[in-house]
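Title: [Solved] ROK family protein 3D structure

Original question kept below for reference.
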Amino acid sequence: MTTNGHAAGRGDLVRASVLGLLGTRGPSSRADIARILGVSPATVTQTTKELLARRLVTELESVPSAGGRPARLLGLDRAAGYAIGAKVVADHIAIVGVDLDGTVRSSESVPWTPGPHDALDVLCGAIADTVARHDGNLLGVGVGIPGAVDSQASGIVDAPTIGWRRAPVGQRLRDRLGVPVLVDNDVNTLAAAESVYGIGRKHDSYIVVTIGRGVGCGIVQHGVVVRGANGGAGEIGHVPVTDDGPTCGCGNTGCLEAYVGEAGLVDEAVRRGVIAAGGTVKDLSLAAAAGDAEALAVYEGAGRLLGRALAGVVHTLDPECIVLMGEGMSDWSHWEAGFEAAFRRHLLPIRRDVRCVVEPWTEDQWAVGAASLVLATPFDAVAGGEQGELVRARLQSAVEGVS
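Solution (posted by the thread starter after getting help):
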């Protein structure tokens, strides 16, 4: 029997499988662990005893059992390892330290400009400073970039919005830090976070859609983040929705993002006279909250376009559910009416019950997603390529009691 790429077996394989199970499914009883892994209760008892002694696993609350005394749940011990996550945007770098159980131990924002020739040096220095302030078993560093990344392991980045072409982000960070480094598109990092700590614990195939400055989509099929041939899968913001239309940041016209990204919303609000030239999406949000009919119409129209586009994505990918998140979620109540009507109407009848989950948003989530590139790899035997193997080796050293 296998679970998330781990073969059930004896010795180290059982220890790794138990950690993987707790990482992907969350706190579980010993009986559930034995049943899912297909090993004897005695083996699980002995294995978890070792993991408890090494502080990789901890006992949590009791839950009712079907007869007999209540079962104790086991969960990952945050002291077993941690990751650093960094989200790169146009004007700052958000950096977090995240323990193995998903607890955020630190969070900071570092001002940053991507254009100068030393931008990569500044990025490396900011992350190195964070690493130096932490103690414990650092499993690796994850970085989320608003662009295409050829592979998580090599980390070569093409990100037009920040002016990077073939930037060797992964190698530069590895040279500076001397630890495993995984780099991916920022929305893919959120999909990775969902696989470890969120909806991926219950669903194998789903999409994560972000609404904010732009529009992004992370695709998970059968528990694996789909990256495409060149690391650019999921760029639904650049699906053309009109023959002509406003110019998008990518240089094309009529893209979905040009209508429903922040800049597109602001342009439409200015055209309708809701806000003055030079206004911001915050001004639009305040007007909608105050009941301005034209402001509400801006969001409703954007919701309709997004709903139609996502109906097409559902027909293409057939996900179990959709997770909606991002900075734009603070105004979702204004989007929702236009979105729901258009989305359901354009779905085939057999797809109309697909679930949409709207998640609350904080700035830290981007960086936590980046850290999840690292934290997901111990629980997936193929994730991250060579760098993922190095992450797993670091956790295995803790399993074996090697300092």
